[in-house]
Known about the structure:
The chain is an alpha+beta fold and 112 residues long.
Amino acid sequence: MRLSSLGLIVALAGAAVPALAADPSAQIEARIGAWGRNCKNAIAERVSNASMADIRVSLSATTRSSIDAGEMTLKDIKQYGLIYNWERPFPDGSALKGACYVDGKGNVTKVD
Length: 112
């Protein structure tokens, strides 16, 4: 039996998926990215004249520190959610800033 290059790539990609799914760090980072996009969408709906490109969203420093130190686990994130900081800068140097709270299912619960 001859395995084509494409077949080999598909076979290798398929083998990598279970490893990725089992890696809690990868799952945490995936949630951070996806839930950050949820925040960005919610903020864009609330802030007038703001495009998605205008809004910057990042995980709060305290939350990031807790994750990096191993104090916040995937289980904790699923239970308590995440907190993000957001900013919408303006050309004059001013900015709107706030926080975005996401529950353990990725739903935005509050935008300050």
